[in-house]
Amino acid sequence: MNAKTKAKEMVEDGKEAVTKEAEARAAEMRDDVADHGDTISSATKKAAGEFEDYDAVNSFLTQAGEAVEDATNRLRERSLPDMVEDLSAFARRNPLLFLGGAALAGFAAARFLSASAPSDADDGPELITADDDVWSGYLPESPHTGTHD
C-alpha cells in the first residue's frame, strides 16, 4: 500500500468518525429538545385545564399543547439527515421565513448563553502567558520584536 492510498484511508476513517460523533451529538440534542417540548406540552395542557370556563382560551391552549406534542413526536422519529433535508427544502420554499427564524434562533441562543454564563464582573479576559502558549518556541521570532537602531 502506497502513502497516497494510506492517506486516503486515514481521511475516510477520520471523516467516518467525525460523522458518527456529529450524529450522536445531534441525536442527544434532539432528545433534549424533545424532552423540553414534552414539558411545554404538559404545561400548556395543564394551563388549558385552568381555563375550562373560557372556551376560546381553553381551546387555544389545548390546540397549542397538541401541536407541540405532535412536533415533539415527529422530532423523535426523524434522523439527522432527514431533518437536514427537511430544513433545506423549507429554506428553499420560504427563504425569508427561514432567515427570520434563523435570526430569531440566533438571538435566543445568544440570550440563553449570556444568561447561563457565570457572572464574575471582576474577572477580566484570561490572558495567555508564555508558559500556557502552545506555540511558544515553535514559531520564529517576528522581525519587529527586536530593538530599532
What would you note in describing this structure?
With 149 residues, the protein is mainly alpha-helical. Helices cover 72% and strands 0% of the residues. The protein has four helices and no strands. Helix 1 (3-50) packs antiparallel against helix 2. The model has no long low-confidence stretch (mean pLDDT 79).
Largest sheet: none
Shape: elongated
- In terms of DSSP E residues, the strand content is under 5%
Structural class comes to mainly alpha
DSSP, total strands: 0
N-to-C SSE string, H for helix and E for strand: HHHH
Summarize the structure.
This protein has 149 residues and is an all-alpha fold.
Give the secondary structure arrangement, pairings included.
Elements (H helix, E strand, L loop, with lengths): L2 H48 L4 H23 L2 H14 L1 H22 L33
Helix pairs in contact: 1-2, 3-4
Please tag this protein with its features:
single chain; 149 residues; mainly alpha; elongated
